[in-house]
Structure formats: C-alpha cells, structure tokens
Specification:
The chain is an alpha/beta fold. The chain contains 7 helices and 8 strands. The strands form 2 sheets. It has a 5-stranded parallel β-sheet, with helices on both faces. A 3-stranded antiparallel β-sheet has the order 2-1-4, with helices on one face. A hairpin with a 2-residue loop joins strand 1 (about 5-15) and strand 2 (about 15-25). Helix 3 crosses helix 4 (about 110-115) and helix 3 runs parallel beside helix 5. The chain is globular. It binds adenosine-5'-triphosphate. Adenosine-5'-triphosphate (ATP) binds near residues 14, 15, 39, 41 and 43. InterPro entries: AAA+_ATPase, ABC_transporter-like_ATP-bd, ABC_Transporter_VariousFunc, ABC_transptr_haem_export_CcmA, P-loop_NTPase.
C-alpha cells in the first residue's frame, strides 16, 4: 500500500523557535493516525504543516503527489477540521450541508444522511450560531464528511462533544478509513486515539 503522507526528519519553527524536529510520519490509505501529547507539544503545528499552511524548515514532506500546498487542487482531496469555521450568515444548518454537497461532487453523504448521522436533524432549520458548542462541532465535522476527500485532517475533533457522540465519531472515522480514506487527527481523547485500527503517535 503506498503512503499518502510521508514526512521524514521534519523540523518546524514558529517565530524562530523550534517546535518540531526530526519528526517522521507516514500514513497510508485506510489508516487512522492519532497524534497525541501534552499541550503545546506541536500537534496543531504538525497538522498545519500537513495541510500546507506552514512550511517546514527542514526535512521532506509529501502529501499525495508532492509537498502540500494551500491551493484549490490540494483542498479538493484534503478536508481539514480545525478551528471553528466562519458560518455563512443567513444559511441554516441544512443549507450549510447542501452547500458542501452542491460544490463537492459527488458528495460522500447526502445532507439528510449527514443530519441523521451527526444528530442534527432536529436543528436543521436553525442558524449555526444558535447551536450549542458541541452541535456546532458536529456540524463542522458533518460538513467535512459530506465532501469527498482522500485525507481527513482533524485537530481535536472531540472538542465539545459528549461521551456518546465521541464513540460515534470513532465509528464514523473507521468507516471513512474502511472506504480507503486516511485520517490524521490530533487528539487528547485517548479512547478516540485507540479506536480499533488507529495507530497512535505520541509527540
Ligand atoms: N506564533 C508563534 N510563535 C512562537 N511560538 C508559537 C506560536 N504559535 C504557537 N507557538 C508555540 O508552539 C507550540 C506548539 O503549539 P501547538 O498549538 O502546535 O501545540 P499543541 O500540541 O497543538 O497544543 P494543544 O494540545 O494545547 O492544542 C506551543 O508551545 C506554542 O506556544
């Protein structure tokens, strides 16, 4: 199986301070890689690097066919859920999902299926800003999962989620990987990091 992410000897600095050094990481289609470690160890920094939002100062990094780049062609294959997205004013929860399904063809999930899977059916006609924190996080994840992608990058996807939904999230990620996708997530949830089939990397 050929890897879709390959980092060798990666080093990253922020404002001249070394954050990561000598980091090796691989991820193949069908894999879930869970990056764990203490606050400030560099998990989000690593994800930003994999997303092409931050350039390493040393090492080799390949994501799919080359170095990651913050360009439309790259983002067509890569879905990132990190900070809360900017919600479109005037669009409901359902319409945010409709938008994803209309733009990214063919959608992985219909908006109706996503509303069910992410327990948002009862909130479909509300504006996202009227949702609770955990419901907004579920909408962020649902929008990423409606789109087709090869790589899913998640920064603390468990943020705001209740214990029951965290278990479901593990199942959703397993399904994504079983269909050939690659998940790389930074997490503080050790149960999520140990979802069957996940490989854990402690920074
Ligand atoms: N602009 C910056 N300049 C210098 N250092 C920074 C900058 N931004 C972040 N850092 C430092 O980089 C380190 C790594 O931050 P990062 O957010 O990647 O950690 P993390 O492992 O994701 O932490 P957490 O578990 O708290 O989310 C931290 O020590 C942080 O203080």
């Amino acid at each position: 199986m050929s890897e879709v992410i390959n980092a060798v000897g990666l080093a990253v600095e922020l404002s001249g301070n070394p954050i990561l050094s000598g980091l090796d990481l691989t991820a193949a289609p069908g894999e879930i890689v869970a990056i764990t470690g203490q606050n400030g160890v560099g998990k989000s920094t690593l994800l930003r690097c994999l997303a092409g939002l931050l350039d390493p100062v040393a090492g080799e990094l390949t994501v799919m066919d080359g170095p990651p780049s913050d360009e439309a062609a790259f983002w067509r294959e890569v879905a990132l859920v990190a900070d809360e997205p900017a919600w479109y004013p005037g669009l409901t929860v359902r319409e945010h999902l409709d938008l994803m399904a209309a733009v990214h063809r063919p959608p992985r999930l219909t908006p109706e299926r996503a509303l069910d899977l992410f327990d948002l059916a009862g909130r479909a006609d509300m504006a996202p800003l009227r949702l609770s924190t955990g419901q907004r996080q579920r909408l962020s994840l649902a929008m990423a999962l409606v789109r087709p992608s090869r790589i899913l990058l998640l920064d603390e996807p468990e943020r705001g989620l209740d214990a029951e939904f965290r278990v479901r999230l593990g199942e959703i990620l397993r399904e994504y990987a079983a269909a050939g996708g690659t998940v790389v997530m930074a997490t503080h949830d050790l149960r999520l990091a140990q979802v069957p089939g996940a490989r854990r990397i402690e920074l």
